Every structure is written in C-alpha cells, then in structure tokens.
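Figure 6 in text form: structure in, sequence out.
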C-alpha cells in the first residue's frame, strides 16, 4: 500500500501527524505532519538551525505514523529542505534488530516527485539519505554485541563497509603494533585473549597534506583491573562509538565524492581483567617516548589514542581530530544535548560548531588549558599520569592528556562523544539504542573545508 507524507506549516505542533484515507486513487493514505513556525536563520543561542531540525522531526514522525498504519511504500514531500527530509525519513525508520529471530521489514521510502523539474531536489534528497545511512552504519556497529564485534570482526566489518569504494584499509597486527613501540595501546589490549588490531585507512581525492581522524575502538570495556560496576556494563559494547562514527563518516565522504585527503587511524582492542592485565600503578613508554603512569586501568581510551595520535604525527597532517567515548564526566556535564569539544584552534572549532548547527547534532567547547595539563604532568617519577590529581574536571584532564601526544604545531581537536553516543536518547527521529552521533557533523565538517568539483 502506498502513502505519502506532506507538511503543514503554521501553528501545528512540530511532528504532530494526521492520517487521511482514500483521498485519491493513487495513494491509500496521506499523512500531514506539522512543521511549526518557520524561522529565519540559525538560532545562535541554541546553536541549531530550527527549520532543518523541524523537517527532520516531521519527516520521521510522518513516516512512522504511516508505517504503523501498515504502509509498505511511503513517498515524502521535500518540505522545502529535501536534504533534511531525506535525513529524518532514513534515520527515523531505522532501528537495530539484527539479533532478533524475526525482523520487521521497514517500508520503502522515496521522494515525492512534484510536477516541476526536481533534479536538484532529488540530488539534495539523496545527499540526506547518504548521510543518514552513514549514521545508521555507525548505529549498527556500536549496537552490535561485543561477542559479535571483536577487534578481528570489527576490522572485517570496516573492510566490508568500504567495499567498492576508493578507500584503502590496512589492518596491522600485534607484531606491527609492537614494532612501532605502541606500548600504551598494548598495555590496554594485554588483558584480553582477543588480539588487537590497528586500522590505517586512506581516502585520497586531492593532493597535499592529509586531514587526520583518530577513532577510539574499544569493542568492550570492562574497566580492566579497575573494573566497572556491573550495572549497565552491557552498554560498553558501544565504547568503539568514536571509531564507528569516523569510519561511517568516511564512507559517506567517499559516496559523496568529496575532494579531500583523509587518513583515519583506529586502534581496536578489548579492555579486560585477567592475569595478564595491566595493573594500577604500572608505567609504560608510549610511541612518542613519553612515560605514562597508568593509575586507573578504566582510563584506557586515552592510552590507545596516545599511540594513535603519535603515529598520526608522522604524516604531517593539516589537523588531527580524535573522536572517542572518553569520559563519563562529559555525560554529567552535557547530558545528551551535545558533543564536548576541546580545540587548540578557534578557526576549526567555529567550522565544527557551524557544522553541528546545520546537522542538528550540536557541539560545545570546553577548555584545553595549562591548568589541566599541570594536573597530569607534574610528577618526579614519570612524564604523564592517565588520571588527574585534582577533584573534578575529568573530561578536561583527559583532553589535556591526549594533547601531550600531538605535535604542538598541529591544530588539534578532541571530541568526547560519551554524552551523545547512547543508548538513551531524546532525539525524536532516533529510536532508543546507540545513536551513531556525531557522524553527520563530521561529514559536514570536512565538506565545509574542501572545494567542490
């Protein structure tokens, strides 16, 4: 049965949907959905484009209502923003059900073609669909249970994700990792029987120095010897959310033929307690030569990122960005409203904030101050501590730690996505589960810095 979603401008509550039956012979049902009042521009106080977000909410709400009414094919009006309509429709219909014996087939979603030249509208719609599909890829990777997403299986999934695209994946094994003196990474991995992997991923569509992403790829985080409480520990299957978001964003960048030179590095491992596990108080030497006191084995993400960031320095990058579910403190600070960002570059942060305003997946800046660096570096026995001495500020000391492994002349941004990765979410067009955020913001961030073909 066919149906279509159209919009209602004005004072109807955004996302409020009405279904009408048998209005014409071509469509079984028509869904009318409210967009609310139209705004003129981005709301700088809220850091969001309210019109784009209203379209995403409306498209998802209309599609869900028609799906519940039994429609198998749904055509969506462009709502004056076909890209946002494509995003909302595609994100709103997807949910993780891969481990269910009986899976529900979602309805087919397509653009309702209007009686005028819709070529540009169709292109924008497809861009929105591609961006949403990328976020759905990240949602799938992070929601997969850890026994089905080990480091080896994660590497295989990434290779499958890029099949047929101009993206090259080198999967480096444990011997290679050891040869690069990535001892901080190995210190985390040694507690697990699963072998670590280091993924070096290349997308090169232009000349010049690369942009570099580094994604945290802990496929399960028990906390190691500093073990986590058992309550909600199952959510740690998503501790590779940074890696998933970066990998999915890169796929979309390739699908959209964005002209960029990008390197993505993903250290992948489990953090487990065992007789081989790193103990609190152990000291290791990272790839860049700095010694690290591991006083809390549950502060493991920064350890594997330290070596990946050190490796990134060897490519003379334009900038380096780490993306990680790094600290529970960020969730305390921001709830689920935004990704926390630490940046050594005002210019790059401004670009990222604009990208987040357009995607509806916002970011908020935190300080990368010497105050926090002092808390992790002032000790006579070692160079860096993996936890801060002071009370509070855990997200800030974590970012200061990472900054110790980036070349001082290279612009650096760290995205702590622990606040937005899920599984709890208040985003109207996302079902409960891992969110895949901020995949679309990463795509838009790169797109804003490159020249179109």
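Output sequence:
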């Amino acid at each position: 049965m066919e149906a279509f979603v159209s919009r209602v401008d004005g004072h109807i509550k955004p996302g409020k949907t009405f279904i009408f039956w048998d209005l014409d012979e071509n469509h079984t049902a028509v869904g009318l959905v409210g967009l609310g009042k139209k705004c003129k521009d981005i709301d700088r106080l809220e850091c969001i484009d309210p019109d784009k977000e209203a379209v995403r909410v409306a498209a998802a709400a209309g599609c869900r209502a028609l799906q519940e009414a039994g429609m198998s094919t749904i055509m969506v009006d462009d709502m004056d923003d076909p890209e946002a309509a494509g995003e909302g429709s595609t994100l709103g219909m997807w949910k993780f059900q891969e481990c269910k014996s009986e899976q529900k087939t979602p309805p087919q979603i397509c653009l309702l073609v209007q009686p005028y030249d819709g070529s540009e509208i169709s292109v924008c719609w497809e861009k929105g669909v591609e961006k949403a599909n990328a976020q759905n890829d990240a949602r799938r990777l992070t929601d997969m249970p850890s026994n089905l997403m080990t480091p080896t299986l994660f590497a295989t999934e990434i290779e499958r994700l890029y099949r047929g695209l101009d993206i090259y994946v080198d999967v480096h094994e444990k011997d290679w990792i050891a040869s690069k003196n990535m001892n901080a990474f190995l210190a985390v991995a040694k507690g697990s029987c699963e072998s670590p992997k280091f993924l070096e991923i290349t997308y090169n569509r232009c000349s010049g120095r690369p942009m570099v992403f580094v994604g945290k790829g802990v496929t399960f985080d028990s906390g190691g010897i500093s073990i986590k409480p058992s309550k909600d520990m199952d959510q740690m299957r998503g501790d590779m959310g940074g890696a998933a978001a970066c990998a999915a964003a890169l796929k979309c960048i390739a699908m959209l033929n964005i002209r960029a030179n990008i390197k993505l590095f993903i250290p992948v491992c489990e953090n487990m307690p065992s007789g081989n596990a790193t103990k609190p108080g152990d000291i290791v030497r990272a790839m860049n030569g700095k010694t690290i006191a591991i006083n809390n084995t549950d502060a493991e993400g920064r350890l594997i990122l330290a070596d990946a960031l050190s490796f990134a320095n060897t490519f003379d990058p334009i900038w380096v960005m780490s993306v990680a579910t790094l600290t529970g403190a960020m969730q305390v600070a921001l709830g689920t409203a935004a990704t926390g960002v630490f940046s050594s570059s005002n210019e790059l942060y401004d670009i990222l904030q604009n990208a987040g305003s357009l995607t509806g997946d916002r970011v908020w800046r935190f300080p990368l101050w010497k105050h926090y660096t002092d808390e992790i570096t002032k000790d006579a026995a070692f160079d860096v501590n993996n936890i801060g001495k002071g009370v509070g500020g855990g997200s800030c000391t974590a970012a200061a730690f990472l900054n110790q492994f980036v070349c001082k002349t290279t612009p650096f941004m760290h995205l702590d996505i622990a606040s937005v990765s899920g599984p709890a979410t208040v985003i109207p067009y996302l079902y409960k589960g891992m969110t895949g955020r901020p995949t679309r913001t990463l795509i838009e961030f790169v797109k804003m810095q490159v020249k179109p073909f």
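Caption detail: The chain has a mean pLDDT of 94.
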